[in-house]
């Protein structure tokens, strides 16, 4: 006896409603949150740090160019280049009272300076790679998230949030900057927008592991694919995913990856 074909499908449906806001888009750069003199001090510190690393030959040319671009973004005083993303979730991470209602606000650094690494761990292709994200190894990244926390703190003390918030659960309220940074280092998580392991850049930007001191960067970062997405030195091998994005962008990368796929 033949089974009848399955012709039924069920799905949740929703209807979107869009609104146009008054004025321009709302971007939050660090200059919108902090006094510009504080930003200027941080810029001076970063430039001095880069100069030291450059003089010792630690940085590849590609990393130098990345840092130069990120510094230019940081120097933007108009606040048109967002450095932080703020997210609101309708449930909390820690629910100490199961009968209570929670929500969570989170700040995400859009242009982190820290660089991680990924390497093969075995000749066996099914073995997991060795991944070291090295989150917050650059002090400026922790500073950015501290600024994000202070901004969220102000938001939570502004109507209509003050009408619904009974208590700040995690972290405890009224922490010092050092305490907040300690909390950030203990609790930060990835947004899962990984990129840059096969950066699109000129092949000559970079170096070899044997030619550069392994002080700050325990990996090699050089151009892997060109603007046609073809891997340097190959006949017709192309990469079309987030790995070719050469430095973090202030966006969720799904649409960008679609565009990369369309290019191929």
Automatic annotation (TrEMBL):
<dbReference type="GO" id="GO:0050660">
    <property type="term" value="F:flavin adenine dinucleotide binding"/>
</dbReference>
<keyword id="KW-0325">Glycoprotein</keyword>
<comment type="similarity">
    <text>Belongs to the GMC oxidoreductase family.</text>
</comment>
<feature type="domain" description="Glucose-methanol-choline oxidoreductase C-terminal">
    <location>
        <begin position="223"/>
        <end position="261"/>
    </location>
</feature>
<dbReference type="InterPro" id="IPR036188">
    <property type="entry name" value="FAD/NAD-bd_sf"/>
</dbReference>
<dbReference type="InterPro" id="IPR012132">
    <property type="entry name" value="GMC_OxRdtase"/>
</dbReference>
<keyword id="KW-0274">FAD</keyword>
<protein>
    <submittedName>
        <fullName>GMC oxidoreductase</fullName>
    </submittedName>
</protein>
<dbReference type="GO" id="GO:0016614">
    <property type="term" value="F:oxidoreductase activity, acting on CH-OH group of donors"/>
</dbReference>
<dbReference type="Pfam" id="PF05199">
    <property type="entry name" value="GMC_oxred_C"/>
</dbReference>
<dbReference type="InterPro" id="IPR007867">
    <property type="entry name" value="GMC_OxRtase_C"/>
</dbReference>
<keyword id="KW-0285">Flavoprotein</keyword>
<keyword id="KW-0732">Signal</keyword>
<feature type="domain" description="Glucose-methanol-choline oxidoreductase C-terminal">
    <location>
        <begin position="112"/>
        <end position="204"/>
    </location>
</feature>
<keyword id="KW-0560">Oxidoreductase</keyword>
């Amino acid at each position: 006896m033949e089974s009848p074909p399955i012709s039924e499908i069920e799905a949740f449906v929703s209807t979107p409603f869009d609104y146009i806001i008054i004025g321009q888009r709302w971007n939050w750069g660090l200059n919108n949150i902090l006094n510009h003199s504080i930003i200027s001090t941080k810029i001076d510190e970063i430039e001095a740090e880069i100069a030291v690393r450059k003089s010792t030959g630690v940085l590849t040319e590609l990393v130098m160019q990345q840092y130069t671009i990120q510094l230019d973004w940081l120097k933007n005083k108009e606040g048109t280049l967002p450095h932080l993303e703020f997210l609101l979730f309708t449930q909390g991470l820690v629910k100490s009272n199961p009968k209570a209602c929670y929500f969570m606000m989170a700040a995400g650094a859009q242009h982190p300076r820290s660089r991680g690494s990924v390497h093969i761990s075995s000749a066996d292709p099914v073995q997991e790679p060795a991944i070291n994200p090295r989150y917050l190894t650059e002090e400026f990244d922790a500073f950015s998230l501290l600024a994000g926390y202070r901004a969220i703190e102000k938001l939570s003390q502004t109507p209509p949030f003050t009408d619904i918030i009974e208590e700040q659960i995690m972290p405890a309220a009224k922490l010092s900057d050092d305490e907040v940074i300690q909390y950030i280092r203990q609790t930060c998580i990835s947004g899962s927008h990984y990129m840059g392991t096969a950066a699109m850049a000129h092949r000559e930007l970079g170096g070899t592991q044997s030619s550069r001191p392994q002080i700050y960067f325990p990996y090699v970062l050089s151009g892997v694919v060109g603007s046609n997405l073809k891997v340097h030195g190959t006949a017709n091998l192309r990469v079309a995913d987030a790995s070719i994005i050469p430095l973090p962008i202030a966006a969720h990368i799904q649409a960008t990856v679609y565009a990369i796929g369309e290019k191929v």
